């Protein structure tokens, strides 16, 4: 087997290495996921569990990852199967490392797609594609949902084709950097992208922090995040969200920091490097992550609206609210483009890092040339993302995000911390960490690594598991979607408001929806319908025509639609000055059967675990065979 085992690349400069490692960590997690999680979990209430998680989980795991990585590099391994194998020297060890390959591989499948949206939106901002013009209204929520293929309507996009095209551009840009290698690729891109990212962040933070008060003020936004709130400290979900955020943002439990650290020299420091990487990431997360999206949303929409925006998902903050704000301020051309480029750059420096373990494995362990390894990676990357794009409307992206971006990280970190502190042994582990250290890590962390981190991780996993079982959240239940056809031609605003779940209206709505969900599950297919609805000022919406799938019409007749839309206060506000007259609109309705799509997605993810397990098994078996053969020959 041709192998590059002896000649692995090394980082050329310390600054290049630190910028690349910081780029690995700094990503969409910092600028979208962090504000989203913080706002959805009580703002100030989130920050205490967040910083505690940073200290007891994030930092220790960062040091563990760097230490394992450098150790592996010394033994010519760039990925966790080989690293664990050389640390533990037991036949099972290499298999425990499989998640250090499969988790990042599955992670890039959905992450690069989001990265592609950021690039597309930078383009849209520059071109003014989401500006409303006379004759073409742009409803940004619908615009985003049609761009990804989530919406049942086609006002702005026919389907996710354009998103797929941007994905291809993004994946080729990633492959270009990866193909160039550690120095000419990863280090080079870190040196360009990170200063640029910092500059863009500063420009945007300055723009947002100097915004005059509108529906709210910047100070209210910052107060919301930084006023400590102790009332939610006993709520487990806030702690779980904080721990999950720390893992995602630091790229911990992904096997990627280990790969980056494997390009260090055997005597290079890991203690200070690990701390610097985490600090740079936290600096960008806490400063730019808090100074841009949330204060801007508070100024533009008001404080009360922010938790609701956050609860509707991180993407809504980035792609809908921020686009709305930029457009509203008349700043979409420059500032909108800068915002989306900032997101894209942050994501790009992470995605190349997260793809690196698979590439390193194919080169270091499977012995492929850079060219062949890149080709194989590209094929598996594109093929694996196809279900994410095509099945996005069924929740495929969220599914992969859950398994690899949430559960997978914590699961692999738990394995890694137990191996490091209990199997390899904290004595040896600590000595490894301190070897060549340019920083004296306080000894309390030795205690934390052995007695706190692994146990907290196992507890977090246990909680998640219990929560998933109790809330039945792993069952792919059908979802209901609707949208206005011909929206682009109608000026003014459509509004609807879902009542709170525990209100009588909310309970009634849930009962109505359950009827349709049950029918979808029984039929095992999507059910679609189109309703012509009359909206008159001050009156409840009235259904004048209802056509579509006969099963749907049978279980949900026109009266069902009328009540369902009415409960959500579906309403239309014409533009100022326009006559307020009854309006007839066609609403497209879709109830989606998700089970098949979700199981395909899960099988794809499991497929990567299986492929890597088989590869590991055959590579190591082959090595054993060669060893035995050469042993026999020399005997
Ligand atoms: N750590 C990367 C992020 O924050 C994956 O997005």
Tell me what the structure shows.
- It is a single chain.
- This protein is mainly α and 635 residues long.
- It is 68% helix and 6% strand.
- It contains 23 helices and 6 strands.
- It has helices spanning 14-25, 28-40, 44-74, 80-88, 93-96, 99-127, 140-147, 161-209, 218-226, 236-250, 256-261, 271-291, 293-301, 306-311, 314-328, 332-364, 370-390, 396-434, 444-471, 504-523, 550-555, 558-567, 595-634, and strands spanning 479-484, 493-495, 527-535, 542-548, 571-573, 583-592.
- The strands form 2 sheets. A 4-stranded antiparallel beta sheet has the order 1-6-3-4. Strands 2-5 form a two-stranded antiparallel ribbon.
- The longest helix is centred in the N-terminal third of the chain and has 49 residues, at 161-209.
- The protein is globular and about 95 Å long.
- The structure holds alanine.
- Alanine is lined by residues 25, 27-30, 248-249, 251, 350.
